[in-house]
Amino acid sequence: MSEFRITHEYPHPIERVWRVLTDPELVPRWTTTGQGGRPEGFAPVVGTKFRFVAKPVAGWRGIVDCEVLEVAAPALLRYSWIGDEGAAPSFVAYRLQPLPAGTRLTWEHTGFTGIGGFFMCRLLRSVRAKMLTQALPTVLDDPKLPA
């Protein structure tokens, strides 16, 4: 089984980081470094079924089906991730920890299986690393974003 974790620290309070990660209006602003997935039907409430919708590419329909599995705002969001119809789910978790000078975010994506899962894990890790080190800080630093 393949998985990855990316940890990054931001000089912002945990509530701000949580908001940027979970507000459906803000999520597309930091997912643009990937396929630009926007959440449809998302709410940080256990049992909520939602989708990330992006531009389809060869071999992928552009939709990820998800279900919120666990929420402990503003410290934890965990949801299932099914990128291909009929595929087994993998699992994404955002774990936030307050620090004296900001917030530590650990992004986990676990449960990839088989050789296809191995390659998908490597691809998504690369995309997520860029999102979390380039795009997410840009949104967090936006002075127009209410505190």
Structural class category: alpha+beta
Strand/helix succession: EHHEEEEEEH
**Rg from Cα:** 15 Å
Helix content: 25-40%
Q: Segments where pLDDT lies below 50 for 5+ residues?
A: none
Strand arrangement within the widest β-sheet reads 1-7-6-5-4-3-2
Distance between termini?
Answer: 40 Å
Count of individual helical segments? 3
Summarize model confidence as the mean pLDDT: 91
Strand content: 35-45%
Main sheet: strands, sense, barrel? 7 strands, antiparallel
Tally of strands: 7
Shape: globular
Structure description:
- With 147 residues, this protein is α+β, with helices and mostly antiparallel strands.
- It has three helices and seven strands; from the N terminus they run βααββββββα.
- It has helices at 14-22, 27-30, 114-140, and strands at 2-10, 38-40, 49-53, 63-72, 76-82, 90-99, 102-112.
- Strands 1-7-6-5-4-3-2 form a seven-stranded antiparallel sheet, with helices on one face.
- The radius of gyration is 15 Å and the shape is globular.
- The N and C termini lie far apart (40 Å).
- The mean pLDDT is 91.
